[in-house]
Every structure is written in structure tokens, then in C-alpha cells.
Write a structure and sequence with these properties.
It contains 19 helices and 17 strands. By secondary structure, the chain is an alpha+beta fold. β11 and β12 form a beta hairpin. α2 packs across α6, α10 crosses α11 and α14 packs across α15.
């Protein structure tokens, strides 16, 4: 017998299948039941039986609704979540692994395996189409099953049809196809006994194919369930992201209006207090270490007419946000700070831009100032002001001295005069040091972070900065290097330690820094050859420094930088080449990665791991290296992360027979003539 089924594959469906880019393996989605409650991104909790990003559990009628043409997402209408939330961002998805710390949520975005929300919507549509095809195949199999049972004599829709109210026959079905697929069909005549064994085997096979676990019907239902989860995940994430930012913008705008109408008297009072304190303490020279740095920063902000409006309007909001962010109890801190300072930068930008030249140095290049973001231009202005403040207190910098432990010092010009020190000859003095072959060989992300934290902890001289380079000599005769750059040590601007606030401002804006110059100089002193593989790691300020080095084309001409790892740093401004495989770690409660007022780009070679520890009971502010290390300890299961970890082992020699690693530590000092301020400070007993 012949049964009419659903029409064939449409041209649109065929095109969708051919053009579909399945870049996210389904296995990468973590089991939602294993994600701790309250561990989702941006405070979105997930728990047993839930789906990622707070989407409603799918199944039954909801699956059918998502796959039908009337649905606003898949049926041609518009809906939140139907497009990418930024032009280049990949949709994040949760990641879990065995031994993951309780209460910690990890979300991965970017990398080769990322998919934006348009990809997901197309994927969900294709899943529904595939489910339709499976149901067509099931209907054909059911028709064959019925035909086998009836031995070719055909079917009737009921053995005892009912008589309707108007006297007509009512079989209960509109067609034989409907009767067959619903199980309501019966044979016209008894089945003969010929070929009974073969028929029985075929019937058993068709029954397994059409019903039960693993059947065509079961597979179609699974595809519809998956389509629902995919669609709701995309929509829910986009709605959550945009809704959170929208609420914070409204709250901040309301607060700023209230302060403006209040007259900003708090700023006048603050300026008076700071002025009096400066007079009484010889401009901070008589204040304890740390307090003099705070006074220097306040003087820079309160004494600048370009910043008057911002100080009058936003100073109290900034202080309130800083106190709130310091508590890190919600997992919303980073996104909220990013929203706030982004809005402030937009307002300050016109006046600030008018004060900057048409072109400014960014790394080793001169670029049009207009090509920078509003935040970069504002911070560029602040960096120049911090340089002026530092020159007044500590003298105009004359050079940067880089000294390997046990080796000869090398001095190069300051970063603003010779970016990265590339215009100055640097001897490979550290290459002549003995190769111990007993240095550490970190093989995971967590081990790199812990090594950096330990290395910095061993340095007790706060008057200078410190970096480390791990040289690994492999059994095949090649050499590779891991350059490790810790974070901020000094919160002043322009003192002898270049791991200071001045470097932070310069690095975020793109202006050349003494730390960038020092790190590249140390790489040259170590004797890194042009073809040697080089990995960079940085935490906080070190993350910006490492990213800017990896992004610079002039540096790339001398070094083969293949890998970058950052933790807790604002790295959005670095335009990394595709030759660098980058892994960025950012905690949702850590405001530092948000200080560039922009999300870190997600690209095929840049993967961002967003960590939420606000429900994990961590001890201390989530910017600390140890908290980052603990959160990602044992992290695996994402192809991009696993590939990065494998490449790290190739650089450090972890687990490799015959690989020998040598640790080279470098002290870094910013040189300048002694000033009257420093003489007064020394007379008051200050040490740094």
C-alpha cells in the first residue's frame, strides 16, 4: 500500500545544512545537574535539573513549540537572543570537570569552538528540521510494519466504525496515514501463514525502529529537546547580559543626576582636605608608605581642571562602587564597574580628546588618536598627568635597568623614549649564566599562576620590580621560554619600582611603559633566539604588559611568541595576532579586568574563561593569584583549553623526558636623579 507522508526536503533546509558551522561540540556543555547552585555567570545560579544560564527545563509541549513555525525565534519573528550580543563575541557555555572546587562556576567563550547566538538559532532550526525528517522515516517504517502485518491486503481505520450524529460513518481519523501512525489501523482480512518466520523477524525489527529507546521517534524527541535548550540558552544569556547592564546604567544615571543637583559640595570639601594634608606633610614626604601614594593620586585628580566635572559628579559614586566591589559578594562587580567607567569615559572624551595630539605612540607605533577608544584616550591623558606628577616627586626618568640575578646589569632608555628598548643594543648577558636544569616546569594554568605568585613572594625588595624567565632545553636540541610577569607592587607613580600605578595607566591606554621595556630587555638578555617558542604569562598589571608585548608587531619581528596566559587583567585593548594562542582568566567579582571599560575580544585564538567564585566561600578578594589558581585547578574538557595546556607543556617541558629548565630572575629599576622631595622623605625615615 502507499501512504502519503510529509513533503520532501526544502531548498532552504538543504542550504541550512550545507552552511551550518557546528563549531561548538555538544559534549562541551557541562551536565547542568553537576553545576553548583549559585555558580553561573553574572550571578545566574544553576542547580540540579536546570539548564545553562537559567533557561527553563525543556521537554514535551515546549519542545514542540520551539520547533514549530509559529515560534517567534524560529518562525521568522524577532526575539531577544536571536542575534549575537556583540559583533564578535562567542556565546559562553559552562564547563565542569572532576575535582572542580565546590561553589565555583566556570564559563568559556571564544576560541575555535565558540558560536554566537545567530549560529545557535540556525542550529536549533536545523535540529527541528532533522527531527521532522526522522518522523517522516518513522511514518514510512510504520506503514511498512502495518503492510507486513496485513500481508498486503490493506488496512481499515477501525474494525467497528462508529455512526456519527448525522448518520455518517465516523472512523475517528482523517486518513489511513493518520490511523497507521497512531496505531489505530487494522487489517481488512486475516494474515496468511506463508513466510511467517521472515515476516515475524521484519516486524520485530520495525517495532524496535519505530518505538522505544533508541528508536526514530526517540531520536526525534531528543533533537527537539536539544533545540529547545539551545534556543533558550542563547536567549536567556542575551537577556541576562543586556538586562543587567540596562539596570545598572539606569541606577548610575539616577545617582549622578542626584549628585549634580546636589551641587557637588563633597568635591570642594575633599579638595580642601587634600590640600591641607599636602601642606602639613610636605606633599606626602612625611606620610607613611602607601599614604603618600594615595595623596599623590588624589592631588592628580582634584587638581586637574579637565577632571573637575567628573570629580564633582562621580567621586562619591566611585567611592561607593569601590567599597561595594571590594566586598565581591554578588558576582556582578566586574560588569558593573565596566558599565560605570565606560559611561564616564564617553562623557569625558570630547574635552580630553581636544587636549591630546592628533597622533600618539602606542607600543612601537604612532597611531591616530581618533583610533583609540574613549576609555583609552581618557586614560592616556591620565597617564601623561601621572608622568608629570612622578617627575615632580621622583625626577624625570633617565633609564630602566634590568639585572639578572648573578649577572651584569643592562640599562636602556625609558619606555616613552624607546618603546620596548628595541632601539638600543642589549647584550645577552643572562645567556652566559650557568644553566641549572633544575627549575620548575609548570604544566597547567594553575601551576603557572602559583609559580608566579611564589616567585614574586620570594622578592623582598619593594624598591624594584621583578620578572622571571624559564628557559627549557629539550632533548631534541631546541630551546623554549616562559616569561612570567607579576602584578602591581607600588601604588604611586614614577618611583624606582616600575610595577606601579603609572605603568597601569600607561599600559591600559597603550602608551609605552617602562615595564614593557624591562620585560623585552630581559628577554633579549636571556638570549631568546628568533625561532624559539615563547610563552607569556601575566597577572593584573602583568597581564596588560604581557598582552601589549604579544600584540606589538615590532616585538614579533624579534620573537616567536606562540602562547599567552593572563589572569585578572584588563586586556581588551591588545590587538593580538592570530599566531598567538591566548587564554584569559577573569573573575566576575574582580573589578580589575573591567578597568579598560571593554570586554576582552573573543576570537578563534583568544579564549576567555569567566570564573564566578562569589558562592565558593573564598578567603580574600577574588583578584588574588591564589584564588584564580584554585578556581581553575585541574581545568580541562574544553578543546581550546586542552590544546593550550598541551602547548604549555611543550614550552616548559612538563612531563617530557630529557627536558631541563633553568629559572632566571631579573630585578627591574626605574632610574632618575634624586629630588628634594625624596631627600625630605628620607629624612622622615621613609624607605621606598
Amino acid at each position: 500500500m502507499t501512504v502519503n507522508t510529509t513533503s520532501g526536503v526544502s531548498a532552504a533546509d538543504q542550504y541550512a545544512l550545507k552552511s551550518l558551522n557546528l563549531r561548538t561540540p555538544l559534549a562541551s556543555y557541562a551536565d547542568p545537574s553537576s553545576v553548583p547552585v549559585g555558580s553561573g555567570p553574572l550571578g545566574q545560579g544553576t542547580g540540579a535539573g536546570s539548564v545553562p544560564f537559567g533557561a527553563t527545563a525543556s521537554g514535551g509541549d515546549q519542545d514542540d513549540m520551539v520547533c514549530r513555525s509559529g515560534d517567534p525565534v524560529l518562525g521568522g519573528g524577532t526575539s531577544p537572543g536571536s542575534g549575537p550580543y556583540t559583533t564578535d563575541a562567542a556565546l559562553p557555555y559552562p564547563l565542569t570537570w572532576s575535582g572542580m572546587p565546590a561553589g565555583t562556576g566556570v564559563v568559556v567563550s571564544g576560541g575555535t569552538y565558540g558560536v554566537n547566538t545567530n549560529d545557535l538559532t540556525s542550529f536549533a532550526t536545523t535540529l527541528c528540521t532533522a527531527a521532522d525528517w526522522l518522523e517522516d522515516a518513522r511514518d514510512l517504517a510504520l506503514a511498512c510494519l502495518t503492510d507486513l502485518r496485513c500481508d498486503g491486503f490493506g488496512v481499515m481505520m477501525y474494525s467497528q466504525p462508529n455512526i456519527g450524529a448525522n448518520g455518517s460513518w465516523n472512523f475517528g481519523f482523517n486518513s489511513a496515514h493518520e490511523a497507521i501512525t497512531s496505531g489505530g489501523a487494522q487489517c481488512y482480512s486475516p494474515v496468511s501463514d506463508s513466510c511467517a518466520t521472515e515476516r515475524a523477524n521484519a516486524i520485530a525489527a520495525l517495532q524496535s525502529l519505530t518505538s522505544g529507546a533508541g528508536s526514530l521517534d526517540d531520536a526525534a524527541d531528543s533533537l527537539r529537546t536539544l533545540a529547545t535548550a539551545v534556543t533558550l540558552s542563547a536567549a536567556t544569556y542575551t537577556d541576562t547580559e543586556s538586562g543587567m547592564k540596562g539596570r545598572w546604567l539606569l541606577m548610575l544615571q539616577t545617582a549622578r543626576l542626584g549628585i549634580k543637583f546636589g551641587g557637588g559640595s563633597h568635591a570642594v570639601i575633599a579638595a580642601g582636605i587634600v590640600g591641607a594634608l599636602a601642606v602639613l606633610s610636605a606633599d606626602g614626604a612625611a606620610l607613611p608608605d602607601g599614604m603618600d601614594d594615595a595623596l599623590q593620586g588624589l592631588e592628580m585628580l582634584l587638581g586637574d581642571p579637565m577632571l573637575d566635572d567628573w570629580v564633582n559628579t562621580d567621586l562619591m559614586i566611585l567611592l561607593a562602587l569601590a567599597i561595594w566591589a571590594k566586598q565581591a559578594k554578588t558576582g556582578l562587580e566586574a560588569a558593573s564597574i565596566e558599565t560605570y567607567i565606560g559611561q564616564v569615559a564617553e562623557e569625558l572624551d570630547p574635552a580630553i580628546s581636544a587636549m591630546l595630539p592628533d597622533q600618539v605612540p602606542v607600543g612601537s607605533r604612532m597611531v591616530d588618536t581618533a583610533s583609540l577608544t574613549p576609555m583609552q584616550r581618557v586614560v592616556y591623558y591620565l597617564a601623561v598627568r601621572a608622568e608629570q606628577s612622578g617627575a615632580y616627586r621622583y625626577g624625570e626618568p633617565t633609564g630602566v635597568t634590568v639585572t639578572p640575578h648573578g649577572g651584569q646589569s643592562v640599562t636602556v632608555p625609558p619606555g616613552v623614549r624607546d618603546p620596548f628598548g628595541l632601539g638600543t643594543a642589549v647584550p645577552a648577558v643572562a645567556a652566559a649564566l650557568p644553566q641549572s636544569g633544575t627549575g620548575p616546569q609548570p604544566g597547567t594554568v594553575a601551576e603557572v599562576i602559583r609559580y608566579s605568585d611564589d616567585m614574586k613572594g620570594r622578592d623582598e625588595d619593594t624598591s624594584s620590580g621583578v620578572v622571571s624567565i624559564l628557559r627549557t632545553d629539550h632533548a631534541d636540541g631546541t630551546t623554549s621560554w616562559l616569561v612570567v610577569v607579576p602584578g602591581t607592587t607600588d601604588w604611586g607613580s614614577g618611583n624606582t619600582n616600575p610595577q606601579d600605578l603609572l605603568t597601569n595607566l600607561q599600559a591600559v591606554s597603550g602608551r609605552p611603559t617602562d615595564m614593557e621595556t624591562a620585560v623585552v630587555t630581559a628577554m633579549r638578555e636571556a638570549g631568546i633566539a628568533p625561532g624559539d617558542k615563547v610563552g607569556l604569562y601575566g597577572h593584573s598589571q602583568g597581564a596588560i604588559t604581557a598582552s601589549n608585548i604579544a600584540a606589538d608587531s615590532a616585538v614579533a619581528e624579534q620573537f616567536n611568541i606562540t602562547n599567552l596566559l593572563t589572569a585578572g587583567g584588563p586586556t581588551a585593548g591588545a590587538n593580538l595576532p592570530e599566531s598567538v594562542n591566548a587564554l584569559h582568566l577573569e573573575n566576575t567579582g574582580d573589578a580589575v579586568p573591567a578597568l579598560d571599560a571593554a570586554p576582552t575580544p573573543r576570537t578563534p585564538t583568544r579564549t576567555v574563561v569567566t570564573i564566578d567564585t562569589h558562592a565558593a566561600g573564598v578567603d580574600g578578594y577574588p583578584h588574588a593569584p591564589q584564588i584564580y589558581a584554585d578556581a581553575v585547578d585541574g581545568m580541562h574538557g574544553n578543546p581550546q583549553i586542552d590544546q593550550w595546556t598541551e602547548e604549555l607543556g611543550g614550552i616548559t617541558g612538563a612531563g617530557e623526558d630529557g627536558a631541563k629548565t633553568t629559572e632566571i630572575i631579573f630585578d627591574i629599576t626605574r632610574d632618575s636623579p634624586e629630588t628634594t622631595w625624596e631627600q625630605v622623605a628620607q629624612g622622615a625615615g621613609k624607605q621606598g
